[in-house]
């Protein structure tokens, strides 16, 4: 891979959850001669780093893209989403929703997309407006003073294995049943300024991410083995998990994300309209809407 010589080290943000592994694992084998730094963090921290200009390109919460869409471009074909159950965006409730509407919900500090997805579903689908309180992602602690708790990523998965007596709702399934669409919970975005300054390097990063994703989707065994070793659970669970996630940012995910942004604007969760603007590395213009 030929890369323009530049003294700038490209900074890349990687979501530090198993659901994003297919986008990043083996990246280093797909890129040659690029001076880069990979920074793994939870989504909320990557959101902050990209918006502050401390990263050039990163996987981030989709909601964060909506907040800063004028400053970012989306990388086509890269997302973490689902059409239906997602298995790792879960609302744990003490009582079933049809029996008791929650008055207080503890929400994890590690995401923005899922918190606002929950607010949209509760307000517009179920006509419920509970109090939302931020909390560290520990299910037992979250439920001490709340009727329900929202967890994402690996903490949600491990909590679901020990959730006896609780009623668990999958937000991906709720969204799909309501809208008929998929949802992109995380996207890969680059700063427009980085695209302009480091076009060759960003193209190399994008191509390497696409190649890593293709390889990992073709052979999920290393991901499954790693998940069993580091997080736990059975291989059959992880096989279902990785196969059920959507990484290609297809039409149903784009439509679902656009609807999500529209609802977020209607509820004043976003202060402006958010459009999906994609990077097109083969075009001299490089971005299109």
TrEMBL record:
Question: What Gene Ontology terms for biological process does this UniProt record contain?
Answer: menaquinone biosynthetic process
EC? 4.2.1.151
- Which InterPro entries does this chain map to? Menaquinone_biosynth (IPR003773), MqnA (IPR030868)
| Pfam families, alphabetized | VitK2_biosynth (PF02621)
Q: Does the keyword Lyase apply?
A: yes
Q: In which pathway does it act?
A: Quinol/quinone metabolism; menaquinone biosynthesis
What's the superkingdom here?
Bacteria
GO MF annotation list: hydro-lyase activity
Keywords associated with the record? Lyase, Menaquinone biosynthesis
Its catalytic activity?
chorismate = 3-[(1-carboxyvinyl)-oxy]benzoate + H2O
PANTHER family, alphabetically? CHORISMATE DEHYDRATASE
Role noted for this protein: Catalyzes the dehydration of chorismate into 3-[(1-carboxyvinyl)oxy]benzoate, a step in the biosynthesis of menaquinone (MK, vitamin K2).
Q: Which family, according to the similarity comment?
A: Belongs to the MqnA/MqnD family. MqnA subfamily.
> Which named protein is this?
Chorismate dehydratase
